[in-house]
Amino acid sequence: MDYLQYFDIFDEIDREEPPRKRKFYKKRFDPFTLEEKDFRMKYRFSKVYMRKIVKLVQRDIELQASGGGLSVELQVCTALRTWARQEVQDDAADIHGLSQQSITNICRRVALALASKAAQFICMPSTLEEQEQVVSGFKNICGFKQVIGAIDCTHIKIKKFGGDSAQYYINRKGFSSLNVQVVCDAQLKIRDIVAHWRGSTHDARIFRESQIRQRFENGEFHGRLLGDSGYGLTNYLFTPVQNPRTAKEKSYNKSHILTRNTIERCFGVWKQRFRCLLLGFSVSLENVKLYIVALAILHNIAIEMNEGIDFLEPVISEDNGDQQVLREGLDSRSGQETRRLFIETQF
C-alpha cells in the first residue's frame, strides 16, 4: 500500500528539531551620552558623582560581556534612576533597553555592593579630633555645646503583606512601614542607622535596644545626642524641657529645637534625593532593608561631593509630635540633674 509511505514521512518530520529561537537583545541606552544638564535632571546626580559610584562598586557587580552582560555604568545609572525618581520598574526597563526582571536584579546587585561598604561611609566619629569637629559643627548653629549627633526616626512605607506579623508593621498613621532610626551630624551626614524595626515600634524602644545606645553607655563618645520628647532624658541624650518656666529653660528649648532640626533636614534632603523613601517601596521586605542602607551611603557620598539638590522639589518633613506621649518613667534622675546643671551654666 503506497499510502503507508506517508506515515514514514510524518515520523521523519516529528524527529526533526524545531528551529532554535534566536536571542533578541533590546537596544541599550547609554546615559552618559546625555548633556550634563539633561543627565542631572533625569538621574538626579552629576556624571562625576555617577562615575565615583561606578568606581566604588565596579569589582562587585562587573559582569562578563559575553552573553549580553551589562556594563557597570549602565547598572549603576539604572539603579539610581529607579530609586531617585521612583519610576515603575517596567518604565525604567523600557528606557534602558532591559527587562523588568533585569531591573530588579540590578537594583539588588548594586544595593548589595553598596551595603557591603556601610562601615566605611556610615560611622560615628571615632577619634577625639573627629568628635571635636562634629561638636563644633553643631555649636556653630546656635551655640549648643557638646552635641555629637541629632537622633530621630522616620517611617518608610512598604507594601502590605499577609501573615500573623503583618499588623505589627502598621504604624500610628495607618500604613505599613519600617521605623528607621537615624543619627546625623550638622552637615546632614547619616552617622548611624537602624533599618529593621516594624512600623508600630516606638522610637524610644528602638533606641533603647540599639547598639549606638550601648556605645554611649560605655562612654565611647565625648558628647551627647539631641532627641525630641519621644525619647527618655539621660546624661548622653538631651530632650526639651516640658513646660519651661524660667528664661534659661526657654532659651535652652529654643536652642535645642534649632540644633536638633538638623535631623529633620537630613530626612528631608534624603527623601528629596530618593523619592522611593518618600513614596514607599513595592519590593520584598528583605530588599527594602537593604535599599535603605544603600541609599544612606549614597546620601553621604553626595554630601561629601557637594551634590546640590536645588533643582529638586522640596520635601516637607513629617511631624513626629504624636510620639511625644507616655513620658512617665522615661527620664532618668541623673539625666534630669545633668540637664539642669547644663542649663544653669550654659544659658
Automatic annotation (TrEMBL):
Keywords annotated in UniProt: Hydrolase, Metal-binding, Nuclease, Nucleus
GO CC term (a single one): nucleus
Residue ranges of domain DDE Tnp4 in the record: 151-300
Signal sequence residues: none
Subcellular location as annotated: Nucleus
Cofactors: a divalent metal cation
Pfam family, one: DDE_Tnp_4
Location (main, coarse): nucleus
Keyword Glycosyltransferase: no
Lineage: superkingdom: Eukaryota
Entries under InterPro entries matching the protein: HARBI1-like, HARBI1_dom
MF (Gene Ontology): hydrolase activity; metal ion binding; nuclease activity
Similarity comment text for this entry: Belongs to the HARBI1 family.
Protein name: DDE Tnp4 domain-containing protein
Lineage: Eukaryota, Metazoa, Ecdysozoa, Arthropoda, Hexapoda
